[in-house]
Every structure is written in C-alpha cells, then in structure tokens.
Model the fold of this input.
Amino acid sequence: MTGNSCIVLSDDYKGYELEYFCVPRHYEDSLECVLIPSGLIQDRIERLARDVAADLGREPFAALCVLKGGYKFLADLLEKIKQCYRFSSENSVPFSVDFIRLQSYKDDHSTGDVKVLGVDGLSFLQNKNVLVVEDIIDTGKTMKVLLEILEKQKPKSVKVASLFVKRTSSSSGLRPDYVGFEIPDRFIVGYALDYNV
Ligand code: 5GP
Done:
C-alpha cells in the first residue's frame, strides 16, 4: 500500500514518561513527554522509503529538503531508499539532493508569514521527478508556498514527504503524499526539529 495513510496519535495519547529516556539537558525543563521514541521513527521511515521507491520505480528523482528541520529526515529517508534499490535490483537509481529554507515561525505559533530563502536557482528541477522532504506540516501554508514555487519550474512530478502532520483546526487541508505520523496539535522538538531559529 502506497497511499498517504499513516500512524495516527490520538488527542489523548500521552506519550512516554521522560524518566525512561535519556533527554538532552537543555530540554529537561521544557518537555512534557517523549511522544515518539526514535526507534519507531526509524521503523516508520523504512516503510516510507519503501513506498517512495515503489512509486518511483526506476525513475531518477531530485530530493529537495526543507531546512532546517528536514535534514535528518532527508538523510534517513534517502539512506533507506537506497537500501530498497540495493535489495530489489542490480542497479541503483540516480538522485540529486538540494536544499531550500522557508521560515514561517516565531516562538511556538505560526505567524502566517512565510519567508522564502535560497530559491533563485530551482530551474534545474524542470522535467524532474521532485521529492520534497519536510519535517512537519502544521497549517500547511509553508508547503503551499513551496509547491507554488515548484510548479513554476515545470517539474515532471512533485511528491511531498513529511515525517509529521499536525491535526489542527487551522490546517489548509494540504496532505503530503507520504506521511510518517499524524500528531495532536502540540509543539514538538527533537529529531532536528528546530525551535525559534
Ligand atoms: P506550517 O506552514 O505548516 O504552519 O508550518 C510548517 C513549519 O513550521 C515546519 O516546517 C516547522 O519548521 C514549523 N513547525 C510547525 N509545527 C512545529 C512543531 O510542532 N515543532 C517544530 N519544531 N516546528 C514546527
């Protein structure tokens, strides 16, 4: 199955108590719980990688990572996509990796402002299969802006992979093609997701 269904954490999901995990000292006073242990994140990414590889088949693709939060997801996803090709065929599929930075956040709430950084040179995406890799979709405004920019480059196809999607009343309705976890409307950190930077 390669639809965009995912693991859903319900609103009353409590996560795991901090005392059972090694929590970075700088987070000690601000965390409520461990929402998703890293092993589960890795296992889920393995399956997302399989879905991406199945959909792309033998087609080359251009991975476009949304910084800053997306870099760890990108690295783990690509590694696992490569493993899929290694196991399933004699040759690997070529892909490129590029980075874009979009800022839409101040403190822990969306400002509605989306600042696009570093998008001058995206014309190379013309006629390419683009895989956008994002850490989290909240309202979806950031991703909408990026998708509009990408459409102007006339790519062959565009798919979006987001490790997390937030269940929020202010959602624009945008649903990525590949989603790791749907989470309640809470602010999360860790796994390279940044805070106010
Ligand atoms: P959106 O435009 O979808 O409202 O916001 C998306 C961006 O906001 C993400 O790429 C991420 O940088 C940031 N963001 C949204 N929710 C969270 C969250 O719970 N934790 C962190 N660290 N960043 C978030």
Notes: The longest strand covers residues 95-106. Residues 69, 104-105, 110, 134-142, 166, 187-189, 193-195 surround guanosine-5'-monophosphate (CB under 6 Å). The beta strands are 7-8, 61-67, 95-106, 109-117, 129-137, 157-166, 178-183.
